[in-house]
């Protein structure tokens, strides 16, 4: 419940005892609730965090999809001497756009998650009920040769940034479907150049679709469009908007810590094997660590509101600034660890698999500063510190409930 009138006495005393000497612990929740500019905070998130992140992503997609942009340039160069370099340019542009989206992912509220996350899942379907299907994409590549093909009729498992990744980074031009799938039965008999061209034809359809969806998302918030911004900052809706923002912070736990690291490394109970390497995010580009770094930067923005009013200001007003500093410290340590890694996420998970034991990984996770034998497991340890603080100090100080989807902790 948003902004409860009182805290449980035991929890309050415990938190106060944990705060460093000299911090102001005399402000009650009621005092802060009466004086803090919650409407200004919500407006800051809309204007300085959420809307700019969607606009930046839309701009990058438009550049990627321009008539002389990286996708078109690469497609036109297939079979020519500059094909490899043009493909690399397109891949770099995809990585940049993906990094921007991964930042936006950490504060998904409103239109992006309405209707079961319809808009979000059209842009990116990882951790959804219709994640990327290599066979479905291969089928769609063939079907897209028909002038009547309509991408809007296709499932999210063959759309979005993850499908574009498959088309740009998967060097294996053989299909991934069972023999009985009609659409791909003659695919492997085509020349390599024909297969590359057909994949590129579909890539152009996919990037058009992503551009349209990104524009829909920007328009959904824009005052000149559907103006969800007005609804979001309406004083009558502040409680709902506030809670949706606090819920969004748990992306760093549920998607980043659990889905992107915990399951692939085998730390999370969702993996029943030593590792679950097939669940690694962005495996074709092997950019899983880049995504996690962008999530961490996005989490920092979602916590602080960048330079405007944010959750950190509520925490400070209640006298617990050290809690925010601990969040930011662990974010910095996690980012620095990523920057220091020599091996990719896939390579490190393969090392765990090859060792036949999870001992090094679990030791690294339990003591991320002292033991970094498997750095991605140490990274999980830092993320666990962040998520543990969210589940305890943060929700108590800010006076919110755990999101429904965060009911359990599997590691």
Radius of gyration from CA coordinates:
23 Å
Q: How would you describe the shape?
A: globular
User: What distance lies between the first and last C-alpha atoms, to the nearest angstrom?
Assistant: 26 Å
Q: What proportion of the residues form beta strands (DSSP E)? A: under 5%
Tally the beta strands: 0
Number of helices: 18
Enumerate the spans where pLDDT stays under 50 for 5 or more consecutive residues: 1-27
Strand count, sense and barrel status of the largest sheet are:
none
Description:
It contains 18 helices and no strands. By secondary structure, it is mainly alpha-helical.
Question: How is this structure best summarized?
Answer:
This protein has helices spanning 9-18, 29-35, 38-64, 70-77, 83-105, 114-123, 134-143, 160-169, 192-221, 228-233, 238-248, 251-265, 288-304, 311-317, 321-340, 345-355, 359-366, 375-398. The protein is mostly helical. Helix 3 (38-64) packs antiparallel against helix 9 (192-221), helix 8 (160-169) runs antiparallel to helix 9 (192-221) and helix 14 (311-317) crosses helix 15.
